[in-house]
Write a structure and sequence with these properties.
It is globular and about 45 Å long. It starts with a strand and ends with a strand. It is built from 4 helices and 5 strands, in the order E-E-H-H-H-E-E-H-E. Helix 1 packs across helix 3. It is of the alpha+beta class. The strands form 2 sheets. The chain has a 3-stranded antiparallel sheet, sandwiched between helices. The protein has one domain: Orthogonal Bundle (Arc Repressor Mutant, subunit A), CATH 1.10.10. Helix content is 45%, strand content 16%.
Length: 128
């Protein structure tokens, strides 16, 4: 799709549609702040020894900040939010058994997986 920069800093295709693939500077800053919230939550859950299953982190975000998108988290879907944080090197998604877990980027995977296995939540490891 051909796109042209608009005077407001966003992009529109030549037929006038707003492109959903272009971050304007304000949206980029909002997303970085939202990722900071996600990283802080994962850090908090880690410190408490709480589960960091994808679904549990999603529920905690929903309880604290409401449904997506919202004024603090400008992502349509939680999965997109987490994948963007992973692309930016802030967190890692790790599959343990049939479920995804969200870890901090610098967190040792093997020790986490061993702890999960001891608790019976999974049986195999695969970083996504």
């Amino acid at each position: 799709m051909l796109a042209a920069l608009t005077s407001s800093g966003g992009s529109r295709s030549l037929n006038g549609e707003q492109s959903r693939f272009t971050d304007r500077p304000a949206l980029a800053a909002e997303r970085e702040e939202a990722i900071d919230l996600l990283v802080a939550l994962v850090q908090e859950l880690r410190e408490r020894g709480a589960s960091r299953l994808f679904s549990n982190v999603h529920e905690e975000i929903r309880l604290r900040y409401g449904e997506l998108p919202n004024e603090r988290i400008p992502y349509e879907r939680f999965k997109d939010y987490v994948q963007d944080a992973q692309r930016r090197g802030r967190i890692r998604l790790v599959r343990v058994g049939p479920v995804d877990h969200i870890l901090l980027a610098d967190e040792p995977i093997q020790s986490y997986v061993e702890a999960v296995r001891r608790e019976g939540e999974g049986s195999s490891l695969r970083e996504r």
